Amino acid sequence: EPEVTQTPSHQVTQMGQEVILRCVPISNHLYFYWYRQILGQKVEFLVSFYNNEISEKSEIFDDQFSVERPDGSNFTLKIRSTKLEDSAMYFCASSPTGEGASPLHFGNGTRLTVT
Amino acid sequence: AQKITQTQPGMFVQEKEAVTLDCTYDTSDPSYGLFWYKQPSSGEMIFLIYQGSYDQQNATEGRYSLNFQKARKSANLVISASQLGDSAMYFCAMRESFYNFNKFYFGSGTKLNVKP
Q: What is the rounded CA–CA span in Å between residue B72 and residue B63?
């Protein structure tokens, strides 16, 4: 069964550094998302992406963050100048359509640790 | 106002018994989807079951069923014949269709522990 693939599974970085989290969504899906989950807390929406542009972003998704779909298969989340509070599990998800019936298919997540 | 409310932070159930995890939601959109996800300790998010707002019957998927009460805006997950492997965090989520199709709203989750 096709799945969403995220790399790396765990990333450790120093405060102030830039990180790029990578995702390969399911190939025929059209909607892409990034969510994050601070340890033990709820899953928070960051951004959605459709037709090569951001559809919507949350208050969390400020100028520190950016997304890109550079080559038609990868979907990346860049976090500039990382802070301690950016430590979280970051989930990429994709969906075949934007309709209410479509579930999000999640990757296994990247655990980001900022030291 | 919270879009999705899960009032049970933790639940215990005896192996082989049934358990109900509560979820209420808030939307004015007539068309929406309700979802349940399982998150084991390994961290991945696993889609379990879906219920559409116009579906007349409650959704079922194997041992999972969704008790959908539209007037009460509740979408409780029922797990029958609990197994040790069901121990995990469970999230209820909603996707609104017309006005905010981009976003899934997640509840705060319920941690289920299945006792042998």
A: 24
Q: What is the dihedral of CA B75, B80, B85, B89, to 10 degrees?
A: 20
Tell me the C-alpha distance between A65 and B85, whole Å: 36
pLDDT score recorded for residue B101: 62
Q: Is B107 helix (H, G, I), strand (E, B) or coil?
A: coil
Cβ neighbours, 10 Å, residue B39 = 21
User: What number of C-beta contacts closer than 8 Å exist between A and B?
Assistant: 71
Sort out which chain A residues have CB atoms less than 8 A from B23's CB and list them.
Answer: none
Q: Give the single-character DSSP code of B105.
A: E
Summarised one tens digit per residue, pLDDT across range A54-102 is 988 999 999 999 999 988 789 999 999 999 999 999 999 998 877 767 7
Pairing of strands B110-115, B10-14: parallel
Q: How many CB atoms lie within 10 A of CB B94?
A: 26
Closest-CA residue to A88 (of A13, A15, A36, A18): A36
Q: Which residues of B touch A31 (CB under 8 A)?
A: 102
Q: Which residue has the tokens 């298969």?
A: A73
Distance from C-alpha of B69 to C-alpha of B11, rounded to nearest angstrom: 22
Q: Which of A104, A100, A98, A99 is nearest to B32 (CA)?
A: A100
A42 pairs with which residues across the strands? none
Structural tokens at position A97: 């359509």
Q: Which residues of A41-68 are buried (b: 16+ CB within 10 A; e: fewer)?
A: eebbbbbbbbeeeebbbbeebeeebebe
